[in-house]
């Protein structure tokens, strides 16, 4: 339902009477105080930022999903031959430390589960940067941290250590 409202408008050198249609429930800007106007403007900006952040997040997730689909498609056809040869070439030129092997296995578990560093670090109670350094073999994690990371990845510490042993053994063969 629309109500008519008569408003006195002031222009540079005159005053005018103008009739406006006002709909029930519609907020009128001129009834707001300056502080309320700032609050409305701030809320509108927050909504715009939230929409942009959601769009960016959705785009990142779509890109990750595409990447995982491509990896799974490529892994299914060429994994045994390509993975073995690259691991052998790497082992031939570089002695793998236990720290690097643990990092390799942790990253492999995380990417196969399609989990991000952020998700695993939050679930394990470890900082994202530290987890990244552990995965790259730059930091040596304590047994307590390895336990919480393994739990966040859905495996026991013994399973994870067996995978590390298998990985090292595969590089030595």
UniProtKB/TrEMBL annotation:
Recorded coiled-coil stretches: none
A molecular-function term among this protein's GO annotations: DNA-binding transcription factor activity
Cross-referenced SMART domains: HTH_XRE (SM00530)
Keywords, ordered alphabetically: DNA-binding
A GO CC term attached to the entry: cytosol
PANTHER family registered for this protein in UniProt: HTH-TYPE TRANSCRIPTIONAL REGULATOR, METHYLPHOSPHONATE SYNTHASE
The protein's name: DNA binding protein
């Amino acid at each position: 339902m629309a109500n008519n409202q008569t408003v006195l408008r002031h222009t540079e050198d005159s005053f005018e009477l103008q009739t406006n249609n006002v709909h029930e429930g519609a907020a009128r800007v001129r009834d707001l105080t300056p502080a309320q106007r700032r609050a409305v403007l701030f809320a509108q900006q927050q909504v715009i930022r939230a929409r942009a952040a959601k769009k960016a997040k959705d785009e990142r997730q779509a890109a990750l999903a595409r990447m995982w689909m491509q990896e799974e498609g490529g892994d299914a056809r060429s994994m045994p031959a390509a993975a073995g040869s690259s691991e052998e070439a790497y082992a031939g030129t570089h002695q793998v430390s236990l720290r690097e092997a643990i990092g390799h296995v942790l990253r492999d578990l995380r990417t196969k589960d399609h989990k991000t560093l952020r998700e695993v670090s939050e679930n394990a109670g470890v900082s994202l940067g530290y987890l990244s350094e552990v995965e790259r073999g730059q930091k040596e994690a304590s047994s307590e941290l390895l336990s919480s990371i393994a739990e966040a990845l859905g495996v026991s510490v013994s399973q994870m250590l067996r995978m590390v042993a298998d990985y090292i053994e595969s590089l030595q063969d």
